[in-house]
Amino acid sequence: MMSSENTISKTANLLVVLGDVGGYGAELERVVEGFCGVVARSVEEMSRVDSERVYVCGDVGLLPDADARVRVIRELSSGFDGRPVEVVGVGQVPLLCATWGCSTGGSSTRKTSSGGSRQSTCSRT
């Protein structure tokens, strides 16, 4: 009998972090930790994963050739000027939010346990 519960696919999306990304700080850390998919740290790892959508951050110049699947995250990338890639904002990257599902868009501000607030991109599935 098939389960009637929804599941979240973590293989349709790939996040590739290229080169020295130390200057992107907390925003990059938030995206990597919450990414709804597989995270790769090199072009070699990227080639071993078959995903429908590929998000790239860091030094895009390290990509040998961009293909139609590549979406460069504008705020977290460099070296993509003049390359035939789709450029997206960080709010368009699919993120997991606790018991919520993958989302691409629809930002909201949530209170943290320490009393601060945190920008998140979530949608209930």
Question: What would you call the structural class?
Answer: mainly beta
Average pLDDT across residues? 77
Query: Total number of β-strand segments?
Result: 9
β-strand percent reads 35-45%
Low-confidence stretches: 106-125
What does this structure look like?
- Residues 106-125 have low confidence and may be disordered.
- The protein has 125 residues and is mainly β.
- It has a domain at 13-91.
- 12% of the residues lie in helices and 36% in strands.
- It is built from two helices and nine strands.
- The longest helix has 10 residues, at 25-34.
- The radius of gyration is 15 Å and the shape is globular.
In short:
With 125 residues, the chain is mainly beta. It has helices at 25-34, 43-47; strands at residues 13-18, 38-40, 53-59, 70-78, 86-88, 95-97, 100-103, 107-111, 117-121.
What's the topology here?
Elements (H helix, E strand, L loop, with lengths): L12 E6 L6 H10 L3 E3 L2 H5 L5 E7 L10 E9 L7 E3 L6 E3 L2 E4 L3 E5 L5 E5 L4
Parallel strand pairs: 1-2, 1-3, 3-4, 4-5
Antiparallel strand pairs: 6-7, 8-9
